[in-house]
Every structure is written in C-alpha cells, then in structure tokens.
Design brief:
Layout: E1 3-6, E2 21-23, H1 26-39, E3 53-54, E4 60-62, E5 67-75, E6 80-87, E7 95-100, H2 105-111, E8 123-125, E9 130-136, E10 140-148, E11 152-153, E12 157-162, E13 167-174, E14 177-180
Parallel strand pairs: 9-14
Antiparallel strand pairs: 1-10, 2-4, 3-7, 5-6, 6-7, 8-11, 9-10, 10-12, 12-13, 13-14
Length: 189
C-alpha cells in the first residue's frame, strides 16, 4: 500500500502528522555538520562552506526539530563526505547529505587512516528484510513497503522489490528506511 502526502504544512504517511512540517534548510544542515566537525577537532578555517552542502531533495521535518549527525563516511570515488543526519525524537526520516571537500585537513582527517584499519559500517538491512522506501520530491513525498533483495550498510545502494513485484534500486538511510534512486530509462522493443 502506498501512502501519499502532499506537503502543505503537514506530511501524510498514511495518516496526518500531528506536528506541522517545515522545510529543512541548508543552514540547519551546515550548522549540524560543522558542529560535529568542530567536536572532531577540525579547525574553523577547514570547515566546509555553506555552498559545499549538496541537498538530496526538498526535505521536510517537524517544526522545532533538532538535527544531529549520526554517521560520516568518505566516498573516495566522488571525493565527498556523506553525512547521515537525523532528528531527535523521530521528528524526521533520517537522510543523507553530501559535502564537497577540497584539500583541507578535514579531507586528510577522513582518509588518513589506512584502509585495513577502517571498519566497514555495520549492516542495517539484510536480504529478505521488510523496509519502508521513500521518494522525496519537491512538493510530494511517497512511501511504500518493500522487501530488500540484498544486505547493506547505511549509504549503500541495494535492490528492493515492491508489493507489485517491481525491482528497483534504493539507498539505505538507516535500519528499515531506504530512499528511491532515479531509475534508468528502459526502452520497449
């Protein structure tokens, strides 16, 4: 069953949300990311700028929310850090944000550990697990139940199957939560 919500102050996930929803701003995300990096010892002049934050889509969460960084991972092939952010007390669905990093101590801090010593993030979904997949559009959020066809950690892209049997790719946001990725066009012959 697909829950459909049109965002006009409230978000619908099968039922009306009790708390009004407001857009998550780039400034909020920047503040959460830079606060976390400061705690990790990154100097002020090495912190990412506001325009280094790449938002995945229009994000909405409960008004009065508090964002926090739950995890950070380095994506060497894209030369970016990926931050998993979440809200306190379930005020939003966890989401991923990419941060461009160029020649800074922050970059060195993330990649200075030898690969053999870097721990693989823990698996949060396994083959056969039931999960919720979300599509975050500009004015529309969709959610549906899916079955995971692969296991993976936060940030991994896996295949999932919906209740109609369609198979598609989704990025793992956290335990039981995935985000739909743009699907490749298929030609019909």
């Amino acid at each position: 069953m697909l829950a459909l919500g049109v965002l006009s102050g409230t978000l619908l996930w099968g039922q009306e949300a009790r708390t009004p929803q407001t857009p998550v701003t780039r400034e909020e995300i920047h503040r959460a990311v830079t606060d976390e990096l400061r705690q990790q010892g990154v100097r002020e002049d090495e912190l990412p700028r506001l325009d280094d934050i790449e938002l995945p889509a229009a994000l909405f969460a409960a008004a009065g929310r508090t964002l926090r960084v739950a995890a950070v991972r380095w994506e060497a092939d894209r030369a970016r850090a990926q931050f998993r952010l979440e809200c306190a007390s379930g005020q939003c669905v966890p989401f991923l944000v990419d941060v461009r990093v160029e020649r800074s101590a922050f970059h060195a801090l993330l990649i200075s550990k030898p690969p053999s010593k870097q721990a693989r993030p823990p698996t949060v979904v396994r083959t056969g697990d039931r999960a919720r997949v979300v599509f975050l559009g500009d004015r529309l959020h969709l959610a549906a139940a899916v079955t995971c066809l692969e296991h993976g950690a936060e940030g991994d892209i896996i295949r999932v199957r919906n209740q109609d049997g369609a198979i598609f790719r989704a990025r793992i946001l956290g335990p039981g939560w995935l985000e739909v990725l743009p699907q490749r066009e298929r030609s019909i012959r």
